[in-house]
Amino acid sequence: MDDPATGSFSDTGRMTTPRANHTATLLLNGKVLITGGDLNGGRVARTAEIYDPATGLFSKITPQMSTTRSKHTATLLPNGKVLVVGGPSADIYDPTAVTFTVTPNNTGDRSSHVAVALADGTVLITGGYVRKDAASDAWIYNPFNWEFYPPGFADEGGARQPSDDPPPRRSSPCFWRVYGNQPAG
């Protein structure tokens, strides 16, 4: 851990699981959410853990994410929840309930992309790989209605407060564009 006052580093606890290509997201409570990553032996993690800087300890959290993830993103949302994007699905982590909830749609089987929280509370997801192909597309995640859509798509999300409850899952998990609750065609 870096101590800015002394300009030195000190050892802290160890993660519960050795991992690489994972994410670390600072939560509003000062703790750090660590998700996914590559494990020893060529496996990919579906697990997550919390680092508490007050104690210097890591603790595994259950339940696990909806799928294994590596080279993914984890973005803090205005309501304190975390959007985890990568692989064939996306999850919302709720630090209060300590749960992962799969989103009703996602951006495809994406990895090595970038996600950034925008000033209006939405999240821009861009580039990376979709399956094995480099991607030039971009998506916006709207935490107000739990939907992904292309930038510039007419969003009728309604109230501009992040929803605590996900909408019902649609029959098709990928690439639904919501406009009046009709799939894009």
Describe this structure as you would to a colleague.
The protein is mostly beta strands. The protein has a single domain, classed as Kelch-type beta propeller (Neuraminidase, 6 Propeller). Helices cover 0% and strands 34% of the residues. The protein is built from no helices and 17 strands. The strands form 5 sheets. It has a 4-stranded antiparallel beta sheet, with no helix packed on it. A hairpin with a 4-residue loop joins β5 and β6. It is globular and about 50 Å long. The termini are far apart. The C terminus is likely disordered.
How is this structure best summarized?
The protein is an all-beta fold and 185 residues long.
Portion of residues within helices:
under 10%
- Uncertain regions: pLDDT < 50 for 5+ in a row? 155-161, 168-185
What is the element string, with H for helices and E for strands? EEEEEEEEEEEEEEEEE
CATH class: Mainly Beta
Terminal Cα span: 51 Å
Query: How many helical elements?
Result: 0
| Percent of sequence in beta strands | 25-35%
Q: How many domain units?
A: 1
* Nearest-integer average pLDDT: 85
Strand order of the largest sheet: 3-4-5-6
Q: Rg to the nearest angstrom?
A: 17 Å
Structural class: mainly beta
Question: How many E strands?
Answer: 17
CATH architecture: 6 Propeller
What is the CATH fold-level name?
Neuraminidase
Morphology call: globular
- Name the CATH superfamily assignment: Kelch-type beta propeller
The biggest sheet, with number of strands, parallel, antiparallel or mixed sense and barrel status, is: 4 strands, antiparallel
